Fold this protein.
Amino acid sequence: VTATESDVDSLGEAIRAGDRKALARGITLVESTRARDRERAEKLLTRLLPFAGEAVRVGISGAPGAGKSTFIEALGEHVTRLGKRIAVLAVDPSSRRSGGSILGDKTRMTALARNKAAFIRPSPSGTTAGGVARRTRETMLLAETAGFDIVAVETVGVGQAETAVADMVDLFLLLIAPGGGDDLQGIKRGVMELADVVVVTKADGDLAKAATRAVADFRAALSLMRPKFTGVSAKIFKTSAVTGEGIPEIWAAVEDLWKQFRGNGTLEQLRRDQARAWFWTEVRAVLAEAIEEDAKIRGKAAELEAGVLAGKALPDVSARALIRAFRGVDAKVAPP
Ligand SMILES: Nc1nc2c(ncn2[C@@H]2O[C@H](COP(=O)(O)OP(=O)(O)OP(=O)(O)O)[C@@H](O)[C@H]2O)c(=O)[nH]1
Ligand SMILES: [Mg+2]
């Protein structure tokens, strides 16, 4: 593949025209770790950046098996019936799981996968917080410029994954399966606080009663929490993929909240804050990479690290020494 300007140009044009194959190729390019691909990816993203921003960005998180994929499939079917286009990015942090859950997601979203108004893409796990790929934001950006009205990111709630996803979406949906320990006690307060909408899943059959109880419990807990945005406390719903209950109401609530946020400047402020955080995250990541890539500095880093491990030097002091060396302030490692 050649790294020509026109190559990236035509890919960008095709993505903007809504060409799904081009979008898939763009995402592959963005996810590539090869330096040459990265250069092209950055050109592509820079070109497309001005055309992003119109989509409703939603994060959908919850414990393994909470019903995220099933819910997204039902939501996707609903919104596409309303004439909207939805892109689903499934971040998979646990390739450990037998059979691979990406395959599972793909088969679980069978109807949506065949839906022309939907686009499903598994996102490989990254090395960053909770497995949320560093490039997920960029993938979202590509999907937006391809004309998707809704970009949904599914992620398994493990550790910091929720925070990472909440930092890249407009609205964060927390899914909870009733019973089975995935109850109020099992959910960390910090995660609850991220939620704009709490969805109790599997409200059918044997679990119907437990779901109703979970809604009451969570409603009580949420009423005691400080609203994420002034005056707006999290909404709570129950849903069932079997009966279809709740899906239209949940979508209506998401859309209402989004319109409200866009109307009163909350969305603009949120996205500005996210862009700032993204920038500084990248500053740290790029700096760490630059240190990694520089053989001389890597040696210095290993030396300093050894001192820290031996209990002879403070991490803070050693970190400063490393940065001084990196900047060429330290004569011993300064470039000739
Ligand atoms: N009865 C019932 N079962 C459900 C419902 N939603 C999901 N399930 C079942 O719960 C299991 C897990 O559903 P998924 O949608 O794959 O859950 P997930 O959160 O995406 O799972 P991971 O991505 O593996 O973390 C599957 O066996 C589903 O059939 C529901 O509304 N009612
Ligand atoms: Mg899933």
About this structure: The mean pLDDT is 86. The beta strands are 56-62, 86-91, 118-123, 150-156, 171-176, 197-200, 235-238. The pocket of guanosine-5'-triphosphate (ligand 1) is lined by residues 62, 64-70, 101, 104-105, 108, 156, 201-202, 204-205, 240-242 (CB under 6 Å).
